[in-house]
Design a protein that fits this description.
233 residues, alpha/beta, 6-stranded mixed sheet, 3-stranded antiparallel sheet, binds adenosine-5'-diphosphate, binds magnesium ion
């Protein structure tokens, strides 16, 4: 199996607070990984570190078995870690063409990616007329413009209505079945169960479990996780 991302003993401290503690896991090509944990468990911090927007305190990570440095590796990564932000008075298509120019990639993939997220028939609508779910789908299309090896999503369904949640999850599964590796952070066990093949469970920055989702569900400790679900996980 090809390794996309390897994290070794990663630690992040914000002053006295340890947000991520001695965390290790590996992302292999072709799988759908969830980082699962309640709010404040270190999910976004972990994603921020591997995307080079947060400085690590200790430990290490490397992309693609260290074959390229992080700067070059990130050209092969698509990520949405913030609320999608586009120009409100430009159409979806115009916004994506602009993203292509900024990223230095060809604009020929714009329609293909709009189709992947089910927005091709709305490509001429202004961004401001989009629902929250459509905005999130446009953000996914945008993150796919450079045909990334891996797509990283932080809480991809937060704030969406049930239909929007269902659509996003289906799109993630479609993208994965086309061979793109996925890493998503979520506080919802349900989301990880529905979308992911593999999971890293975090609590207070520490890894509680990592492995296959089906094995987690069948495993002895799962009832503890289920109980925690009531209070968030
Ligand atoms: P999650 O994404 O799982 O909700 P985060 O990674 O955002 O968790 O946060 C983990 C912990 O680190 C939380 O206690 C949070 O308050 C803290 N934290 C995150 N970012 C910062 C920051 N820039 N400065 C100080 N503390 C932070
Ligand atoms: Mg977060």
């Amino acid at each position: 199996m090809e390794n996309i991302l390897t994290i070794n003993n990663l630690t992040k401290k914000f002053g006295y607070l340890t947000a991520v503690k001695d965390l290790s896991f590996t992302i292999q090509k072709g799988n759908v990984y969830g980082i699962l944990g309640p709010n404040g468990s270190g999910k976004s911090t972990t994603l921020g570190i591997v995307l080079n927007v947060v400085n690590k305190t200790n430990g290490d990570f490397h992309w693609f078995d260290g074959s390229v440095d992080t700067h070059d590796a990130l050209k092969k990564v698509g990520a949405i870690i913030e609320r999608p932000n586009f120009y409100p008075y430009m159409t979806a298509e115009q916004n994506l063409k602009l993203v292509c120019k900024i990223k230095g990639v060809s604009t020929e993939k714009v329609e293909e990616k709009l189709d992947v997220v089910g927005l091709l028939d709305r490509k001429d609508s202004k961004f401001k007329t989009y629902s929250l779910g459509m905005k999130q789908r446009l953000a996914i299309a945008s993150a796919l413009l450079n045909d990334p090896e891996i797509l990283i999503l932080d809480e991809p369904t937060n704030g969406l209505d049930p239909q929007g949640i269902h659509q996003i999850r289906q799109i993630i599964k479609d993208i994965a079945s086309d061979g793109t590796t996925i890493l998503l952070a979520s506080h919802l066990l349900d989301e990880v169960e529905k979308v992911c093949s593999h999971v890293v469970v975090l609590r207070k920055g520490e890894k509680l479990y990592s492995g296959r989702v089906d094995e987690m569900i069948n495993s002895h400790g799962f009832f503890e996780l289920k109980t925690e679900k009531q209070s968030e996980l």
